[in-house]
Amino acid sequence: MVLDCLSPAFPKPMRVLILASGSVLRSLCGVAAGSSKASLSAHFARWGNLGELNAKDSSQETVISLVGMLVGCLVVKVVITPLATWTTLLLLLTLHLATNFMAVRSVCMRTLNRQRANIVFACLHKHNRILNPKEVSAKERVFERDGILRDVDDNCLGYARIGIPASELLQRLGETEKLTKATNLPDGRLLQLLDVFEDEGYVLYLEQPSDMVCILLKKGSDTAVQLKAWYHALLLARLVRQGYESEKKPMDMVQSTLVAVRKDWERVQARLGEAGWDLDTAALETTSGFRVSILIIGDQDR
Fold this sequence. Notes:
Layout: H1 2-6, H2 12-44, H3 50-78, H4 82-106, E1 111-113, H5 114-127, H6 133-139, E2 148-150, E3 156-162, H7 166-173, E4 175-176, E5 183-184, H8 189-196, E6 202-207, E7 212-217, H9 223-242, H10 250-274, E8 278-283, E9 296-297, E10 300-301
Helix pairs in contact: 5-9, 9-10
């Protein structure tokens, strides 16, 4: 809207570019708004009444649009100078953004996405306490870096990627030839990694010194498996940052933390359900994730 209002001040060639940019940004805003609305509608439709909820929402939007048109007709008669026009525009935009920000902050989601899972698990690691959705909502940020792992004091511990393709894991495990695109895997690390996670629904690897935790999901991995993998990633990053495992190799650190995760996860999962978290809806992956199938040929994993 601001670009559309600014366009008359520019020459015609530049004006076309500005108007086109405004249309692109408006389309991107529409896509983001549509996806956010779908998530919020699913959150509020707790009794399977999604259709009724959408119908009421559409009716409210219609009424608000009509009221807005009526108020706009009255404002147009008063706002006649450029200064008054821009002042009113910026004031209304600020009010619009502020009310939307407060509305988003007031929503208390029960699904565990990356940030909420990070907040819950970080508090659990340090204080042995599961935060409920309302407590997490008060700590949740509207803008957060994707995949960041934080401790309970908001210090960055590293980053994690979940649902990565197998090719990315191979590239991080070894070295890829530029010409042939072949990947060399020294020390049999891949076979060792697959052996460690043979009974799990995921494969996790810590890349150093970047402190990037890569999570490969196996075929059939459900929400519980994804949460377990993220719990494992945060525990691993926390111990590495605190220096408890500084003398061990990445593979040894992954294996030692997996033992702790296996010991505690069933109890953690039960406590999450008791705290009111939705453990049936997967929200950790923000894009279409990848799944891999591991076939056993003889005594070797492939």
